[in-house]
Write a structure and sequence with these properties.
The complex is a heterodimer of chains A (about 325) and B (about 150). Chain A has a 6-stranded mixed sheet, sandwiched between helices. In chain A, strands 3-2-8-6-4-5 form a 6-stranded mixed sheet, sandwiched between helices. The mean pLDDT of chain A is about 95. In chain A, helix 6 (about 195-215) runs parallel beside helix 7 (about 230-245). Chain A has helices spanning about 25, 50-65, 85-90, 110-120, 135-145, 195-215, 230-245, 255-260, 275-290, 310-315; strands at about 5, 15-20, 35, 75-80, 100-105, 130-135, 160, 165-170, 175-180, 225-230, 255, 275, 300-305, 320-330. Chain A is globular and about 50 Å long. Chain A is about 35% helix and about 20% strand. In chain A, helix 7 (about 230-245) links the parallel strand 10 (about 225-230) and strand 11. Chain A folds into 2 domains: about 5-170, 3-Layer(aba) Sandwich (Peroxisomal Thiolase, Chain A, domain 1), CATH 3.40.47.40; about 175-330, Peroxisomal Thiolase, Chain A, domain 1 (3-Layer(aba) Sandwich), CATH 3.40.47.40. Chain A is α/β, with parallel strands linked by helices and about 325 residues long. Chain B is an all-alpha fold and about 150 residues long. Chain B has a domain at about 5-90. Chain B is built from 8 helices and no strands. The longest helix of chain B has 28 residues, at about 20-45. Chains A and B meet through helix 7 of A and helix 1, helix 4 and helix 6 of B.
């Protein structure tokens, strides 16, 4: 049996990060840490889809500028979002002169991008590699659920799509390096409830984490933080509970991007945040800066994605999920 | 854990919606909407309209108010608390159509608003029409048999 852990011999460093968010995220507990925000979530555009692209463009440009680079220095961009055909990324990056690969991994896209970017850097295929993901509450809600002004009630397990875009530049400068990664497997445990994506995603996080701990010399205690993104409250509780049943205790050092980004009780977001912008902005503006400041040394970042489609759900299908793991070291 | 076991485990542990609170909210706000409807009805009757005309106009007034509140972004906030209280009366139907119309405006009036306006309300129209036809047929057969 292969270990399936990708050990990066030439680990890239996170040279810079940048985050752009909407007004609700700005009001959240991490609000002041984000680099940019927009009060009306429209970012000066006419449609929500254009707004998402504008947000992503600003995040990429911000990260490249902060790294002291320009477009011509970046070998490739790995980008993704939640919209059909990845239009959020496609339109955002049309105005940038950098080779681009579009990714779809739902909320796991940020971890997927970091994994691929780290591999390309480590293999010598890229000197600088940009990773950016975004999600917008308004464009996602339209595509996956109901119109924005539709009057309905959410269940307590429902998650709230984050409006935000986070970008990273991987290169040879920086304090935080990506030393290992593990690609997730598609796990489908038969959950069909679009309002309980945490439950759909938790088994994939369990699979990846148990595979990682089984095949590495590490145990949960070796990490200052095991951060999932984004299982929300329900998924996080399931993850901790079922892992404990398998003898893996992560209760002390686990946190979740979906729980960090909002004040769950006050902001009416039910089980917490979701969307591939959520883990990107939390990692970019909260976790990585804490590592750079020396507060955290070893962090496992687990991007968890619910790979659902409204069409297959209406046909009675369940929600497959995936979790990619990235091991960061300061 | 097998699929079925996991599904049961998830259903067992998931926090349920607060049914009692939701019912009370739905009853109060739904009731309030009915009172508003009654006020409209009495007002139009007072102004001299026939009962049937006054009743139609009362429905139209509630539809207008819902569409207006949906347009200015207030209705969904009320519905978040009211639940079935705003969904069941004619207000729910009006909101389903107007919210979808607002949402799809960016795709144009033909392929957006025109094509997608009834995406949510469509099933209600289809099945209420079918029910109406079935009821009519049954009613007709009954009148033929029992005069």
């Amino acid at each position: 049996m292969k270990s399936q852990i990708i050990k990066l011999n030439n680990p890239p460093k996170i040279s810079s990060t940048y985050s752009v968010v909407g007004h609700l995220e700005r009001q959240g507990p991490l609000g002041a840490l984000f680099d940019e925000f927009c009060q009306d979530d429209k970012f000066g555009k006419d449609t929500w889809e254009q707004a998402e692209s504008e947000m992503q463009l600003r995040a990429v440009q911000g990260a490249i500028k902060r790294a002291g680079l320009s477009d011509c220095n970046i070998d490739m961009l790995l980008a993704g979002d939640l919209l059909n055909q990845c239009v959020g990324s496609n339109y955002a990056l049309a105005s940038i002169d950098i080779p681009y690969l579009g990714l779809y991994g739902a909320c796991s896209t940020c971890a997927e991008g970091l994994t691929l970017g780290a591999c390309l850097y480590s293999g010598g295929m890229a000197e600088y590699c940009g990773v950016v993901t975004s999600s917008h509450y308004c464009s996602s809600e339209r595509q996956f659920r109901f119109p924005l002004e539709y009057g309905g009630q959410r269940t307590p397990t429902a998650q709230w799509t984050t409006t935000g875009s986070g970008a990273f530049v991987l290169g040879n400068e920086g304090k935080v390096k990506i030393c290992e990664a593990m690609i997730g497997k598609v796990i489908d445990k038969g959950i069909k409830d679009i309002n309980n994506m945490g439950a759909a995603m938790a088994p994939s996080a369990i699979d990846t984490l148990t595979r990682y701990f089984r095949n590495s010399n590490h145990s949960p205690k070796d990490f200052d933080l095991i951060v999932t993104g984004d299982l929300g409250y329900e998924g996080s509780e399931i993850l901790k509970d079922l892992l404990l049943g398998e003898g893996v205790d992560i209760r002390e050092n686990h946190t979740d991007c979906g729980l960090l980004i909002f004040k769950r009780d006050e902001q009416d977001v039910h089980a917490g945040g979701s969307g591939c912008g959520c883990s990107a902005v939390v990692m970019a503006s909260h976790i990585v800066p804490r590592m750079e400041a020396g507060e955290l040394k070893n962090v496992l970042f687990l991007g968890t994605g619910a790979l659902m489609s409204p069409t297959t759900l209406f046909q009675g299908g369940s929600i497959p999920a995936i979790s990619h793991l990235v091991h960061l070291e300061a | 854990m097998k699929k079925q076991e996991y599904i049961e485990y998830v259903e067992d542990r998931a926090k349920k919606s607060p049914i009692v609170k939701n019912c009370i909210c739905a009853f109060s706000i739904g009731g309030l909407i009915c009172i508003i409807g009654q006020i409209f009805l009495d007002l139009y009757s007072f102004w001299g309209l026939e009962k049937q005309d006054a009743s139609t106009l009362a429905s139209i007034s509630l539809i207008f108010l819902t569409a207006l509140l949906t347009g200015i972004g207030v209705f969904d906030n009320i519905a978040r608390v009211a639940g079935a209280g705003t969904l069941v009366p004619i207000t729910g139907f009006a909101n389903a159509i107007s919210s979808q119309a607002i949402d799809t405006k960016s795709e144009g009036y033909v392929l957006g608003v025109g094509a997608k306006m009834f995406t949510i309300a469509g099933p209600v129209l289809v099945f209420s029409t079918i029910s109406g036809v079935l009821y009519g047929v049954i009613y007709y057969i009954c009148t033929v048999i029992w005069g």
